[in-house]
Design brief:
The chain is mainly α and 453 residues long. The chain has 2 domains: 394 residues, MFS general substrate transporter like domains (Growth Hormone, Chain: A, Up-down Bundle); 52 residues. Helix content is 82%, strand content 0%. The chain is built from 17 helices and no strands. The longest helix has 33 residues. The chain starts with a helix and ends with a helix.
């Protein structure tokens, strides 16, 4: 049977979309072993995740504009190649600092994929099929999240944490080959491809100062000043982008398009509330409950399976009934699931934890694909590249914020002699973080509901 051209492109995008979530969810299970290998605590381990996300957030919008200028296919292909090479380079890593450098390179590669993938889906598929196609991409993201803990836990337990990177490198190579074979069109849009040096500087400075300051606000005296500097740079960036004829990020669309702006805000709050949950549960299952990484991976499997199974259906429903009710209800369902997980830790019940993860998975599938569909459907095709970058950027900002919150909370200790990895300190910190994430979900219902009013 002949496979249609757009189906081959979709499969290629799905394989590439699998890489980053798989990398994140599989590495979560290896964090205790990485900590022991490099003799570092929870704060440094959180930075292994956070520095990847921060780098990706910084480069996503510029890479989206580069895709407009030289072609989305070229940027996407470079991303698959760089992701593959950087993953194999883990063989030479000897310190936690070099591991963070490697994670920065992976962040740049992921930015190339994030900035172009959703736009290519929107360009290839017509509006009546776009929600389904995005649901398929979101579904494979969740498949990556689903099998990441199982495969990552197995690889980490049997062959060491470096083997996870080798596995990712092989997948990246496959995605590179498929891009050459099936993705022939460049999708150039030079009218939207602007890379101004002042815009890039202000954008990067606002993210670096703001996000790094937020991460260090609890543990250092200068964190609050760096955060304030980030806010100043953000204001300067917005003012600059509103005035220039060809902005890096057309900020006016946030003021003129309420559906676009509120959907983006809801996405950021959603990822802020959910991304670090896998990291927290990895620590809980291994450091407190005493499971090995292979066993812990099976427990973390359930949420992502639910998300993978339901996302295409939820995306198709958003094509028919709209996104507001589905996405808003999803945020509320996630909050209920997090509450169940929080309570299960008080009771030490693994059955309740699994139930809570099922509820979180249902809620996330109700939110993600419909919300992405709302964002892409609210702008004309000329802005698909920009909208794709915004979806990725707000997701990454939410993920960085999620990890920054966790880094700040996990750094709290009752006294200087107590380790952040000590169960007596770790458990209340994990539960406190879950309460903060519940609050984010509840707040996120508001912009999700009023986006079309």
């Amino acid at each position: 049977m002949q496979i249609e051209k757009h189906t081959k492109i979709l499969i290629t995008l799905m394989i590439a979309s699998f890489l980053t979530p798989f990398c994140g969810s599989s590495l979560n299970l290896s964090m205790p072993d990485i900590g022991r290998a490099f003799q570092v605590g929870t704060s440094e381990l959180s930075w292994v995740v956070e520095i990847f996300l921060m780098t990706c957030a910084i480069f996503t919008v510029p890479m989206g504009q580069l895709g407009n200028r030289i072609g989305k296919q070229k940027v996407f292909f470079m991303g698959t190649v760089l992701f593959s090479i950087s993953s194999f380079l883990v063989y030479f890593v000897m310190t936690i600092q070099w591991l963070m450098v490697l994670r920065c390179i992976q962040g740049i590669a992921s930015a190339m994929l994030f900035a172009t993938g959703t736009a290519i889906v929107a360009l290839v598929y017509p509006p009546e099929r776009r929600g389904w196609a995005m649901g398929m991409v979101v579904s494979v993201v969740y498949i990556g999240l689903a099998i990441g803990p199982v495969i990552g836990g197995f690889l980490n337990y049997r062959f060491g944490w470096q083997s996870i990177f080798y596995f990712i490198g092989a997948l990246g190579a496959i995605a590179s080959i498929m891009t050459i074979l099936f993705m022939k069109q460049d999708w150039v849009n030079r009218e939207q491809g602007y890379l101004g040096s002042v815009s890039i500087f202000l954008y990067a400075a606002s993210l670096i100062a703001g996000l790094y300051g937020l991460s260090e606000i609890v543990t250092t005296w200068w964190g609050k000043y760096l955060l304030a500097l980030g806010i100043v740079f953000t204001a300067l960036f917005v003012l600059h982008e509103a005035k220039v004829p060809k902005p890096l990020l057309p900020v006016r669309i946030f003021l003129e398009n309420k559906t676009f702006s509120f959907s983006s805000l809801a996405a950021m709050l959603n990822y802020s509330a959910t991304f670090a949950v896998g990291f927290l549960l990895s620590l809980y299952l291994q450091m407190i409950m005493g499971y090995d990484s292979e066993t812990a991976g099976w427990f973390l499997l359930v949420q992502s399976i639910v998300m993978a199974l339901l996302s295409p259906t939820m995306g198709a429903l958003s094509d028919r009934y709209g996104s507001a009710v589905l996405a808003s209800s999803g945020m509320g369902v996630i909050a209920v699931g997090l509450l169940v997980v929080w309570q299960s830790m008080n009771m030490g019940s693994m059955l309740l934890i699994v139930l809570g993860l099922v509820v979180v998975g249902i809620g996330f599938s109700m939110f993600s694909a419909p919300n992405n569909n709302a964002i892409m459907s609210s702008v004309p095709p000329a802005y698909f590249g920009m909208a794709s970058s915004v979806i990725s950027t707000v997701r990454l900002l939410g993920q960085v914020l999620s990890m920054a919150i966790v880094a700040s909370i996990l750094s709290r200790t009752t006294n200087a002699a107590t380790s952040s990895m000590d169960p007596a300190t770790l458990l209340p910190n994990i539960q406190y973080a879950l309460l903060v994430f519940m609050a984010f979900c509840i707040i996120g219902i508001i912009p999700s509901m009023i986006r079309n009013k």
